[in-house]
Batch of 3 targets.
Target 1
Amino acid sequence: MNMKTRKINFLLLFTALLFGFLSSCKKDNTDIPVTTKPEIGTLEIGSDNNKTVKAGTDLHLEGEIVAEALIEKIEIEIHQEGGSFKFAKIYTDEKYVGKKNVTFHEHIDIPSEVPAGQYHFHFTVTDKAGNTTTVESPLTIQASDVKASYKLIFTEVKGTVHGNHFHDLADKDNVEPSSIIFDNTGKALAGHAHLKPDGIYKIDFKQFDATGQEIQGQYIKDKATANLYKAFLTGGAFVLNSGNSLTGAIFQPKETTYGDGSAVTGAIETTGITTYFTAGKDNAGEKEVAFVLRKFKDSATKATVTRADWNRTDYVAKYPGDDILRLTFELHAEEGED
């Protein structure tokens, strides 16, 4: 076979391969229907599909979705009939996006301050071809009968990991905080901690007096006062983080100022009225935990509490004092959670 013949054969082979590749791409694109709208099966809205939720609790949602062109996003909107309150949330989690058949199951926190009344509920699925399907329903929100004594507010943030603490913490856009409300005994009345295992969350601790005013600032009103207090997260048997990849758990108290405006300096001085937390992939699943604020017998004790001590099982014996509050709750660290 001469050189000219080889060149012609190579050109024919290359042309065939190119044609096959382009045909394959064209076929792949045409495999996605562009006119078939997503289908939403019976959607449960509220407990036993009663289309009712009480302010200060969470709204149960569950239903089957089939999207021939694959899911792009899922949107929820709740707006008040004849009022101004409105709530919207968009789900673009990997457990939904790009999937053809999924079970949508989420719990949406309804703040205790939401006004009672009649609402309109919209549930919209958009596929990758731009088709949308919406289910609408009336929704009744009942007045809250929960009187919160304490609250933990979880907000996902950005940051990097360095061993047992975080660097470069910053707010994320379009993040909806979630809350757990507790009575005066520390029992959770509404909400759970539904977190991404590798997500980083700011936890704001709130305490309320009989009139509903926030009083958590009493523990960090100045350095002398704050020296007697430290927050712990107990239970759960967490695998703690050690390296610079986020696989284990980190709980980092991180106030920056005291109530009098003076600066908090260093990890030892922080108390835990504001903390940052990640469960880490090694701790995926459900855990029973407690947020504890401990008052030490003397101010020298706090200086012995390091960043690695937040989940100690022997903290009571190790750090003499009293737990002045203990907030117990379920922590669900699962992929796709918000």
Note: The chain has a mean pLDDT of 88.
Target 2
Amino acid sequence: MQINANPAAWLCIVYLQIDFVTVAYLASSMMKRFLLALVMLMLSYPGAQCQVKDTIMSGGQVRLHKIIIEGNSATRRSVILREINIHEGDIIPADSVAALLQENKLRLFNLQLFNEVDQRTKRNADGMDWYIKVKERWYIIPSLTVQFADRNFNTWWVKEGHDLRRASAGLTVTDKNFRGNLESLAVTVQDGYTQKLGVSYMRPYVNKGQTNGLGFSLSVSQSRQTYYSTDSDKLVYAGTYSGPVVWREAECGISYIYRPAYASRHIFQLSYKDYSVSDTILKLNPDYYLNKSDRARFVELYYRYEFNGVDNWNYSLEGFKLMTTGVVRSGIEGLKFQGFANVEAGVFRSPVPRWYVSAIFRGRLMYPQGQPYYFQGGLGTQTDYVRGYEYYVIDGSNYGLLRLDLKREIFNNTYSIPVKYFTAIPLRIYPKIYMDAGYVSSPTPGNSFLSNQLLYSAGVGIDVVTLYDIKFRFEYTFNHLGQNDLYLHFNSE
């Protein structure tokens, strides 16, 4: 959960978010009725359609003479031209101009550099000029980040009684458009449950053709408490909030990015990682790392391929995306060899205006399957969980997850305010119904009652998308165990 603004503005937004979250959970019974009522509105509310201001031409072809860009006081013109798929001198079918402008408007939004993108065309004797006017975001962003020791907000709020000692507060100062080249430079300082220091840098284009990029990262972190085992699909913790440090991690890595086309990207990363735990953790679980070691040191080679053929990378409604990851780890201590591959594929469609369906699959295969405890987490962490099982962790080497959604846009509006970098505040609301299914394969399930069996759930919810890519997901889910509850998330499915 992040809030990005100038000091006065982000304090207001933090206050509103905290208040909004608190009210939602304290009044959960009211929210359940509210969710059901809004889903009924999907069948009756006319909605709002997004309008694009373009000059629509018809008949014949037209030559694009000039591209005039305004408002990019920080962003270099070359960065903007890299994203669009029509260029000066191109000959375009006149009846395709409106569609091309809309497509390229979305491309520029996906840079996440602009709050607004306005465009128009001007016809002249033998062609047209294309005017693009952008309103830049605030790029140097002090982000207040609140992280929980638990896997998600719901576990922390409900199961851990929203104990603030289990929260970490961090300040990350990021320049998301360093030198106007789309470079990213970030420094992180975090305190609380987990203490962390980190720095990262990424330059997406280092060559004239703007296809190659380089980056690096360095971080150290520690905590006085950590989990050491999984009991009945629940994490078991050891350590105290004020005692000695029981867990440490240090990581450094260099990255190479190859982007041959707009929607495709290859990422290679070589890292060295050094993890360690105290004798207290090792006594409780001698198999935390390999060979009863209190330390794991290894070299990791990471490869990721991304194809982002969706309309909006932040909150997708139409298109197709594919992300595959391959990781090979060679151990120096506490780990021998580990290799695994992850895949995520998503299909997003709009069968009729304002209605959207999606199917997302995530899966992992690992070799060899028998790994030290720390390296075998399955479903239940980060984004890989079956909705309705937020309170469980299912360890295992291989897993699969399928999510199906049907949603309708019932509100889409942008509010203008006289504040720099916040001149436009978008607000979109999508009631939805959904179903999930998942499976975790574990050769040594122990006392897990959720591994090696089909998990499934269904529910109703509301997605809210607003300023600076902030998202809220309110979901009331029923799982195959007969349990049902209201859950809150701050990311996309």
Note: The first helix runs from residue 7 to 26.
Target 3
Amino acid sequence: MRNIVGNPARGDNFFKRDREVGKILVSIENENNIQIAAPRRVGKTSILFHMLDVAVEGHKYVYVDTESIDSEEEFYKRLLKEIIKVPGIQGVAAKFLNAASVLARKIKSLKVMEVEVDMQEENEAVSYFDDLVHFLCGIQLDNGEKLILLIDEFPQTILNILNRQGTEAATRFLQSNRTLRLNPDILNKVRFIYTGSIGLNHTVAAIDSTAFINDLNTLEIEPLTAIEAGELLDSLLAVRGVVMRPSARNYLLDKLEWLIPFHIQLLVQELLRLDLPIDGIHEQHVDKAFEEIISARNDNHFAHYHSRLKSQFKGQELKYALEMLRLVAKDGVISRAQLLDQAYVFDVVDQYKKIIEILVYDGYINNVGQRDIYRFNSPVVRLWWNKYAY
């Protein structure tokens, strides 16, 4: 297993997440559309790629990254474009379009060239939403297969539309997505899986549109267990023929606390930069790797924790969130009473609970084990925050 740092891991480099993949497959078989909930860097996109690469019999998977999309029509155009690229769909689409049924005649953005199906992007009269609806209603996959749409960074798309076109456009976009999902002619043959590094529930609640996602089944992606994290660590080191003393292995996992694949991969990268002895990695090497993981060369891996807050919060809410994270990074913990006190200082008393909920969901802080005390999820992120964020 090669150490893929920063990019989604695929194929033999993907650490098997059987628990998470199993939950998703069971939910699909239970006829659900899904939102996958997890903070950034927990491995959501790698899991989607794994499902794409190791397609379960009876499913055809389509992966669509919508992070840069900022309009409703562009979103549906991208979905339609990616669907017709999928192996096996071209023949089904060509057969459907050549049949010239009532639904096929309504589709203006697709054309058949021999057996190839292509987009007619120059047609300004096209409604890509309508064309996608007609296409999905009309096609019949072989042997009753289901089309599984893996839609990545969906909450960011909502924010893009909100920032560019306003609340009405963002609400209309959510409503049309729900209409598409619940269309009775689509419902039995297409499943939608939405995910993203920004919380969908909070994004939608901010524009009072939770009714448009209440049909989705929410599945959470958890950090690795200690056993899983140890297996991943061993696999990454074994490729380079490096051994780790059992005491150092336990020391690393205890010190890391938040056992997400990305941070384990970063630590392995830093461990392998060191001049290691023949008898393997010791505790002092782990300490050195923790120091190096937040060096300037890795800043690109952590800076988003700071910059993305600006897309979630504005004005006094942003100032409050930044101050809370500064305090908890400096002191190690922050109490619920302190959170409320600072809410008065920043004049966000009515909003502060929502702000804390978002920071918890997005993987910054948690109050696990102590309801009234919050701390950083990751000691690594806390180290970076203290060094670079202020």
Note: The chain has three domains: 11-220, 226-293, 308-389.
